[in-house]
Specification:
Strand content: 25-35%
Helix content: 10-25%
Shape: globular
Order of helices and strands: EHHEEEHEHEE
Structural class: alpha+beta
Number of strands: 7
Largest sheet: 7 strands, mixed
Radius of gyration: 15 Å
Distance between the termini: 29 Å
Number of helices: 4
Strand order of the largest sheet: 1-2-3-4-5-7-6
């Protein structure tokens, strides 16, 4: 499939939250253990400014089927050139190249917003996401064993990084 993305609009937030919440039960993608509300994501949405930390969506037939966000890493000025990427896909859009599309676009765009280093925070048991980032040259920069507990199971977190500029 061929994809194009656009900047997310506030009216996309319910679809963005719905896609995010669809991943919570899998215990593979997010450390949230309960669904979040649209209202709880208002401040998060506002932090995603087009010129520094964009939030993108892809639509299919007018429906948001996936999103990518650049987020601040560690919140201190010295880290402004580093951003964390998050990619979330509607269940029906998974395995169809949308993650690859988002990651390729994010890598190419990062220098335009002053980002030289990209990070992915990925659970060690999330093999599809680890393989996706590794396919684009991301390397494991940190392995944090058993830092998350999901349904009584301790899980590892890997931080994958790539210098892009």
């Amino acid at each position: 499939m061929s994809y194009t993305h656009r900047l997310a609009r506030f009216e996309d937030l319910p679809a963005i939250v719905s896609i995010y919440n669809s991943t919570v039960p899998s215990r593979q993608v997010t450390a949230d253990t309960e669904p979040v509300t649209v209202e709880s994501r208002h401040a998060w949405f506002a932090e995603h400014t087009p010129e520094r930390r964009p939030l993108w969506v892809v639509e299919d037939n007018g429906q948001v089927i996936g999103w990518l966000s650049y987020s601040n890493f560690y919140g201190r000025p010295a880290y402004n050139g580093t951003a964390e990427l998050s990619i979330y896909l509607h269940e029906a859009a998974r395995g169809k190249g949308l993650g690859r599309y988002f990651l390729a676009e994010a890598i190419a765009f990062a220098p335009k917003i002053g980002v030289h280093t990209l990070l992915g925070f990925i659970f060690g048991h999330n093999t599809p996401s680890l393989k996706l980032f590794e396919a684009f040259g991301f390397e494991r920069w940190a392995h944090m064993p058993r830092v998350a507990t999901l349904d009584g199971i301790e899980r590892d977190l890997d931080i994958l990084g790539k210098r892009v500029a």
